[in-house]
Amino acid sequence: MHGRPRKPLKPEDAAASAAKAEKLRVLQSQFLHNHHNHIYSKEAVELSTKLLETNPELYTAWNYRKLAVQHKLTENDSDPDSLKSILDEELRVVESALRQNFKSYGAWHHRKWILSKGHSSIDNELRLLDKFQKADSRNFHAWNYRRFVAASMNRSEEDELKYTEDMICNNFSNYSAWHNRSLLLSNLLKRKVEGFVSKEKVLPDEYEFVHQAIFTDPDDQSGWFYHLWLLDQTVRVDSPQLVSSWPTPGSDLILLGDRCLDGCASSPFTRFHLDSRTFPLVLYFNQAVEGVNSSTITVDSELNTNKDLVWKPLSSCNSKAAQVWVTQLNLPDGNTHSSKVFPVEVSLGHSQGIISSSGFHYSNPFCFAFRVSLQFVETQPVEALGKEIISWRDESFHNYNAHSQDSSPISSLYQLSIKNDNELTDFEWRAATIAKEIDHFRELLSLINCKIGKLTLARLLMAHDAMMCPPANKISHSEEVLELYNDLMRLDPTHVQYYKDQHSLVLLQQVTSNWESLLSRCFHYSNSPSNRGSPMCLQLKNLSLSRLGSFDKLLWVQMLDLSHNELRSIEGLEALQLLSCLNLSNNILGSFTALEPIRQLKSLRALNISYNEIGAHSIDTTKYLCSSPLSHSVGSEWNHGQTVIDDDIKSYWEAYFILKGLNLTQFDIVGNAIVNEKFKSFLIKVLPGLKWLDGEQLH
Amino acid sequence: MGELAADKHVKYIISVEKKKDSFESVVMEHLRLNGAYWGLTTLDILGKLDAVDEEDVISWILKCQDESGGFAGNIGHDPHVLYTLSAVQVLALFDKVDILDADKVSNYIVGLQNEDGSFSGDIWGEVDTRFSYIAICCLSILQRLDKINVDKAVEYIVSCKNLDGGFGCTPGGESHSGQIFCCVGALAIAGALHHVDKDLLGWWLCERQVKSGGLNGRPEKLPDVGLLLLVGSFKLDHD
Fold it and tell me: Between B76, B191, B202, which is nearest A631 by CB?
């Protein structure tokens, strides 16, 4: 029982209890005897009734009763009256048992089993439910049973909707009723039942309804969660859309195989180093999709035969769905003339197949193109960046002075996709609704200081900005939202980590929202003599970031400094397929499993994870988020015949798993608890191409 | 901060184990195997598993096994997955899982998977995501997870995901911390955690902590010690 202390029994009570116990034991033994010997006489069945009415948790007795019913039915199979009375008796016993404990799984299930024999009427069941739901409107057994009855007896969803309305009007704080309402509305909208054809007609009333609850008692959670669901329904775009790509549409890329000689006049944002014979083509969708392959995406160029292209989903575990997909395009063999330009055309949506996890198809035929030219100094690919050690110190970086020919490397495909009339009116309604909600909540917050109110306003403002992308009048609410999250961190310290994460996401959105802002964080790396060929480094350090986001705006980044933040995870970083130098030092990464996205960064050559917390924690909280021998998803990877599972791999399996496929030339790991001589020699074994470990050159 | 009164806890558990004739004990006789799991795990955490007679416990557990391969809550009762998991877990505590015929126990569980991927608790057909967790957890301990259709099992669990990020006992069932523990646990073992909306669910779970410091199971309900374990362990899973 909740909240009641236990007290030891007084001696006279203890004796009475022992006597009661003995009596009960005799009855239970008798019952088990009947059960094992298939005795279904009237007395035997009554014994089980007696037991269940006082102890409905005696699950074996419910099983016995079902057998008894089956037995009786085979005996009197042609008499409908007899059938009715048998089943009626069962229903009576269930009701009686439920009065003893209306949360008994066994009792509710027995009733369902009886109903499956085709007995009882919907009115009877609803009446029973009414009784129970009046006694406890949150009883989830009753609500589940109600859904079962409504479905199996064809009660209309509209009637059920009305019922939730009554329950809510009776008591705003009925989360179960709000939950059921959201479920019913989802179904009605999905099936486009008459009166529920468009969200535009249905949702405004729902908003008004939930406002009553929220404004009456802002501290009660029920209304707020329903509001969150309404917001999701208003803002969510069901169909998959292409958000971003690399190379960007219309870009002119220069791919380099070695340091560029002085003749390089082009923008560093269109020059990319390669040390392999392929370069990636990355597609970034607004949600996880499946079915991206050479039949659903056509890449037309001299560099590859489309049907030979293999598209990979960038996701952890063995999920077939991902938001980001990548394929590799070839560079031609042999000595190429430096000025030859290869146009590449990418088209999708021409054939069905790309589908989201909720079953919506990508249906927007879209085509974009870019041009690639190659500059090789030698014919073989050379590890451009592996020639010298990268230093992450401030002295190595210089502000980049923008040149006029620099165009933004951020693509926004949103601009390029054509909207039809339907989508435009739809958009207008959504935007208007969000704007109205923003006004409402600003008003509420002017009256009271309510944490969920602030959180909701923050979410509304971000939703508004997301819908207006690209920003129509360059009005962005980021500053206001960041203020709100700062407020929330003070107002609600128990959830500070969540607010910090959201704050980080908004900050990154702000930083990547326009070209000028990004440019101010781009630094030219110039530690080497012929510096014009070195890539741009995007510096996002010292921003108190605890979470990463906005990857769709960062697909072009080759060198990234995320040091001196508060990162525990780098989820989503796998999208940055061009990354060759990554600095994660001075964060709070707690284990190698938190670095899983790195496994997908095949171009990574220099990695700095120094001064983190790897090896400092006895419990690895990201263990199950990562594919591993402990999880079911991994099969063949760990059973490769070539790998000898030696003691080192057993001790350091996380490090082995994350690092083994990588071609790192430079690795910094000092300042982590796991580091000692044994670990360092293990690293050298796992990373055969490593040239520098913690600043020291290896031989 | 005070210290845990470990000895008192051990004494209490042993007393409950011995007191088979009290009214509470008789009335809950049918779920003694569950009680054994909770009590013995506690003893193990406190480093006092040797306070019970291992042979006694194990021989009693084996008497609870039915010819179908499943285990009942106590001797003479009907088999059910609830007690089958407890049996396997207790044997694992004593590091004696190998005395079982793993195939026999697995076959019992495999036979309870339905076409939609869900699991019934026993032959009478009650379906609940708790049973999905039980099946996956139990088979994982027995190293027989490949005997069921894991993809379908995951599919069913995902179909029980709600709009607030939580999970219910059946599709459409309200989110409840207990069910969430089971569903997230099952997805973790099956390597399918990417189906969980970590932000949404994390937020919902954080909201379970009430002013007294305890944790409730659903919005606007009273805090409960049992749920402290479930919600707390989930957060550990997820950071």
Answer: B191
